[in-house]
Amino acid sequence: MPEKSSPPFPATVDPDFKSIITESDPTAFVSLSHNGEGERLVWDGRPGAGGGRQILFFLYTAAYDDGQHVEVRLEKDTFGSQAENYANNYAIPFGRLPRCVRQDVKALAIMTGYADWGGATDHIAIYSGNVYENLGLREEALMHEACHTSLPHFGSSREWRDAQMADPAFISNYARDNPEREDIAESFVAWIGLRYRPDRLAPSVRQKITDAIPNRIRLFDSVPWSSMHPLTLPGRP
């Protein structure tokens, strides 16, 4: 790969990108229903957990107005009577993401403790100790992880690789250091901010995005996304 310029940002789940999507924005979320409890195999990134493991969860189903249903899992041993509050705390913001990155997420697995959130094959692993909402970045973190679940094919496409090669930089240090795994998610968050919430990015941030990844932006612009609901482009109803 040709030598690149330094990335303009450390990451896109970062204060420069906070509030691209906020709790005042529309959500596709409709309802939450309790479905008892059960064990589920999830990716557990907490220290000493060792990756995939079976955990006993309180189980809920979140319904969305575009027909999506997502299982919301709350670690039974730790959330107790607060499980439903925590379920809503993530199921409602999840509905603010564009459907194209929600579409392959079958579950939100919410666990206690501190670890990096993770987008697995069919679920997002969320750790309540990593409180992105306190930084104004809850929806951005969810969007990043949803990209891992719903867009891995896009990130491995020839078109993406060509755009990656042609651009002068990666959008972030995190994308540069993990080009196969993180570049698509990092770049997508920046593109959503640039196209759908430009008024929430500083002018200097918008310029850095367009200077760093012009070919990736054009590729995102050209994709016939299945649905961006509930996001709408500025100036459109």
Beta strands, count: 6
Strand content: 15-25%
Mean pLDDT: 94
Number of domains: 2
User: What spatial form do the alpha-carbon principal axes imply?
Assistant: globular
Structural class: alpha/beta
First-to-last CA distance: 42 Å
Catalogue the unreliable spans.
none
3D architecture notes:
The chain is an alpha/beta fold and 237 residues long. The protein folds into two domains: 15-20 and 151-221, no CATH class; 29-135, no CATH class. 35% of the residues lie in helices and 21% in strands. A hairpin with a 3-residue loop joins strand 5 and strand 6.
Give the helices and strands, then pairings.
Blueprint: E1 29-44, E2 51-64, E3 69-75, H1 76-79, H2 83-94, H3 99-102, E4 107-111, E5 118-119, E6 123-127, H4 138-150, H5 152-155, H6 158-166, H7 173-177, H8 183-196, H9 203-212, H10 214-222
Parallel strand pairs: 3-4, 4-6
Antiparallel strand pairs: 1-2, 2-3, 5-6
Helix pairs in contact: 4-8, 6-10
